[in-house]
Design goal:
about 800 residues; mainly beta; Jelly Rolls; Tie2 ligand-binding domain fold; Laminin; 5-stranded antiparallel β-sheet; 2 helices; 67 strands; signal; Laminin_IV_B; LE_dom; LMN_ATRN_NET-like_EGF; laminin egf-like domain
Length: about 800
């Protein structure tokens, strides 16, 4: 029973004990049955179970990369079971990022089980048009390159960068470079006012609405067409050969349909036989249409146009207008637009996905928005398609090229490329003034402001601002009369007597009078001239001879007149001049006006004259002749003799000189200070006092010295009138060098009293030397106390 051991208690090699059977069971030892290709030790398995020894009954000993009870299966992540392989199986080479749940590969073929967007035997590549192999559920991300912005839907497998058309950026090529833009679908707009017109057409320029209301036209305005008008549009900027829908934008002027309008396309030959226009037929280039008065546009079936060629599209208005009898039958044509046809754009045709895109585009009416001028809001879905179409049709993005003078920034709207314009500036590039404005410059443009009465309309020259004027009107804004006229708007000729060409437009006052004339009508001579310049007088203005002309520099009058009686010139002399020719000085003036360079000046008498009196100074020398206020001199500039003070300020005062102390032979008093000339030893401004220690001014000879005795007097000063010195006690006499009054003798020795009889003496003072008295008549004696003999 495949056992061994002394007691048959073990299974033989290549057999194992079945744990579910008793050892006494004849089937307890089962064969190992190990796969020789995948097992080690020639297929020996564990004969019994021993957890301590890590033995499991019946377990084969597998090669390194093999598993299973029989060692007949490659481990997960391995394949190609091979008995000659020492490891049994070889490792799978699956990329773990691209393999579903990292399940490894097929154990027979070695192929890996890839995620949704992963390919390759080893699941190490993204599907075409996918990128960024990662541990995400699907393994890779779709490129999603912009339908028109990228050349195709293939992108870099690492970063997903699509291959962009020129001047586009972003991973998906959906964004224009900075300062670039994508052209709108109606980029190919041809303005009717720029078309060639055979006859009977008229350009109508429209001024933008001032209230910000959106305009219903593109460009400057419209072309007014009448029966028989032919408009020819030149198309020379086709970028992509394909079919284009032709849209005519217009505004009817009268009710009813304009039934006979023929649209023809003149194409150059030959057509590229291998291009998209190879099947174009001549009959496809003739398209009759009818323009309804209830519509503002009409879309014509597509026409195939080739890139780089020049076409002519003609609109012919047959003489069958809605109202044939109306002499004013007309229609305003704004523009024609070439819209790319969806049938010519690859990402709208050729697959179910493309068909779905086309249905979505049509559902949201993404194309019809460009039939009219006013487009309204655009959905995000349509915007995305518009960008892609623009990228594809025009080969990438265009430079903004914003005009640096007219725009606020070098950046523009990425859709359509409209730059941010300064005030009154228009155009995609902000490169021109709006209709009704002029003066394109750093501040924008200025409004024409043409006068509503004097101008034909409100449009002006874009450079000078000159409006189109009615007859007889003038000026930039046509708000003036023609030169030589005035009183706008009722203009009349200026009346300037032939001495001026123009006059003030409001008052009629003549401008820049010629021939030395002046006045509202140039009817007077200018200052310094005389005559009668009116047409009636016809006496030309001549320089005033006063005595010479103003130009000579020898003239003393600004005005003169012609005496109508004597026909002599009478000058109106300047102040200080007199005579009919102003050649003498006026009263109270002096000078030599008769000489060239001479002049007359006001008499300069230091304000010491009476201006109302004539003859105040010599008319030639200017010497003052009638000085007032006790003044004298050439200009009355000093006080006259025996007066003193400030002659200039009329403050001359008569000198007061004492007749006793003044030396009359020495001249008058000082004219400034009033000091009189004094006799010897006399002082004072008036010579009315003796100098110190002198007296006897009444002598008329000056003053004498007091000579007071120093011993007998208190001071050297005596009385100025009688010369009496101030004597000490016991002294007397004028000089205090004698005894005191009524005494006699030598005061330095002894003084004795006089003993004169009062009744017989003439004075009580006796002779100071001998004491004898001075007696009255008939009285005698030493003391006058006896009768005379």
């Amino acid at each position: 029973h495949n056992t061994m051991g002394r007691n048959c208690e073990q299974c033989k090699q290549f057999f194992y004990r079945e744990p579910s059977l008793e050892f006494s069971d004849p089937n307890v030892c089962q064969p190992c049955n190990c796969d020789p290709g995948g097992s080690l030790d020639e297929g020996i398995c564990d004969s019994y179970t021993d957890e301590a020894s890590d033995l499991v009954s019946g377990r084969c000993h597998c090669k390194a990369n093999v598993e299973g009870r029989r060692c007949d299966t490659c481990k997960n992540g391995y394949w190609n079971f091979d008995e000659y392989n020492p490891d049994g199986c070889q490792p799978c080479t699956c990329n773990t990022l691209g393999t579903i749940n990292n399940e490894g590969c097929n154990q027979v073929t070695g192929e890996c089980t890839c995620k949704r967007y992963v390919v390759g035997r080893d699941c190490n590549q993204c599907l075409p048009e996918y990128y960024d192999l990662s541990d995400s559920q699907d393994g890779c991300k779709p490129c999603e390159c912009d339908l028109g912005g990228a050349f195709d839907n293939n992108c870099d497998v690492i970063n997903g960068q699509c291959r962009c058309r020129p001047h586009l950026t972003g991973r998906s090529c959906s964004t224009p470079d900075q300062s670039f833009f994508v052209a709108q679908i109606d980029h190919l707009t041809l303005e009717a006012e720029a078309a060639n017109c055979s006859s009977n057409c008229q350009v109508e320029i429209r001024e933008p609405y001032r209230d910000g209301q959106e305009t219903t036209w593109t460009g400057p305005g419209f072309m007014l067409a009448r029966p028989g008008s032919d408009l020819e549009f030149i198309v020379d900027n086709i970028k992509t050969s394909m079919e284009y829908d032709i849209v005519i934008r217009y505004e009817p002027k009268i009710a009813g349909d304009w039934r006979q309008v023929e649209v023809t396309i003149e194409r150059p030959s030959p057509v590229d036989p291998n291009g998209p226009c190879a099947n174009a037929r001549p009959q496809d280039d003739y398209k009759p249409v009818s323009l309804s008065s209830d519509a503002r546009y009409i879309a014509i079936p597509p026409t195939c146009l080739e890139a780089g060629k020049t076409y002519k599209i003609k609109l012919m208005f047959k003489p069958d207008p809605p109202q044939p009898s109306s002499p004013t039958a007309s229609i305003l044509v704004d523009s024609i637009v070439l819209l790319p046809s969806l049938e010519s754009i690859p990402f709208f045709v050729g697959s179910a996905i493309a068909d779905n895109r086309k249905k979505e585009y049509m559902h949201y009416q993404c194309g019809t928005a460009f039939f009219t001028v006013i487009k309204g809001p655009v959905s995000d879905i349509c915007k995305k398609y518009h960008y892609s179409i623009g990228y594809y049709v025009y080969g990438g993005a265009f430079s903004c090229s914003c005009d640096p003078t007219g725009s606020l920034s070098s950046l523009c709207d990425p859709m359509g490329g409209r730059c941010q314009c300064k005030p009154n500036v228009v155009g995609r590039r902000c490169d021109r003034c709006a209709p009704g404005t002029y003066g394109f410059g750093p501040e924008g443009c200025k409004a024409c402001d043409c006068n509503s009465v004097g101008a034909l309309d409100n449009f002006c020259d874009v450079s000078s601002g000159q409006c189109k004027c009615q007859a007889q009107t003038y000026g930039r804004a046509c708000d003036q009369c023609q030169p030589g006229s005035w009183n706008y708007p009722k203009c009349q000729r200026c009346q300037c007597n032939g001495h001026a060409d123009t006059c003030n437009s409001a008052t009629g006052a003549c401008d820049s009078c010629r021939d030395f004339t002046v006045g509202h009508n140039c009817d007077r001579c200018i200052e310094g001239y005389y005559g009668d310049p009116s047409l009636a007088g016809d006496i030309p203005c001549r320089p005033c001879p006063c005595p010479g002309t103003l130009e000579s520099g020898h003239s003393y009058a600004d005005h003169c007149e012609l005496d109508p009686q004597s026909q002599d010139v009478v000058c109106e002399c300047d102040e200080g001049y007199a005579g009919s020719r102003c050649d003498v000085c006026a009263d109270n003036y002096y000078g030599n006006p008769e000489q060239v360079g001479g002049s007359c000046n006001l008499c300069n008498c230091s304000n010491n004259m009476d201006i109302s009196r004539p003859g105040n100074c010599d008319p030639h020398t200017g010497k003052c002749l009638q000085c007032l206020f006790n003044t004298e001199g050439f200009n009355c500039e000093r006080c006259k003799e025996n007066y003193f003070g400030d002659a200039i300020n009329q403050l001359c005062t008569e000198c007061v000189c004492s007749i006793l102390g003044t030396n009359n032979s020495a001249g008058p008093c000082d004219g400034i200070t009033g000091q009189c000339p004094c006799l010897p030893n006399v002082i004072g401004a008036e010579c009315d006092a003796c100098k110190e220690n002198h007296w006897k001014i009444a002598s008329g000879m000056g003053c004498e010295a007091c000579d007071c005795d120093p011993n007998g007097s208190y001071s050297d000063q005596c009385n100025q009138y009688d010369g009496q010195c101030q004597c000490k006690s016991g002294f007397g006499g004028r000089q205090c060098n004698q005894c005191q009054t009524n005494h006699w003798g030598d005061p330095n020795v002894e003084c004795k009293p006089c003993e004169c009889n009062p009744e017989g003496s003439a004075t009580l003072q006796c002779n100071r030397d001998n004491g004898s008295c001075i007696c009255l008549q008939g009285i005698g004696g030493y003391n006058c106390d006896v009768c005379a003999r």
